[in-house]
Specification:
The protein is an alpha+beta fold. The strands form two sheets. The protein has a four-stranded antiparallel β-sheet with strand order 1-2-3-4, with no helix packed on it. Helix 3 packs antiparallel against helix 4. The N and C termini lie far apart (52 Å).
Amino acid sequence: MRLQEKVGKHLTVYPDKVVIKSKAGIASFLVGNSTDGEKTIYFADCIGIQYKKSGLTIGYVQFETSSGMMNNRSDNYWSENSFTWEKTKLPREKMEEVVAYFKKQMDICKSNRNAPVVQTSAADELVKFKSLLDAGVITQEEFDTKKQLLGI
């Protein structure tokens, strides 16, 4: 999905990240963000998200990362980690759907990061390979090779 806003920014959404591209123009020069560039923000690196609905003013979504290396602007609207829009260009409902997607992807990344790591012993692996041998899935030679790799 690709979204565009009026101050020279484009937001491209992927399953694991967003890419914010900025293109310098007159409007971006006026707000002090007059450089071309591209920023990739992975959902796994996000610690939060700020969202302001568009209304009388423009809305924004800002991705918070632990690096805190945003462009040191105190205004969330023009941060390099922000994407802004007008309700006339992007309906509020559409942006709420997009922000919900961002939050869901961040939650998935956080739950995967907190998933327990299952470790198996060499004996467990040997039992697994023996059952594959008995089922005829692997040959005796393959089983013997696996045993050697396990140091047994």
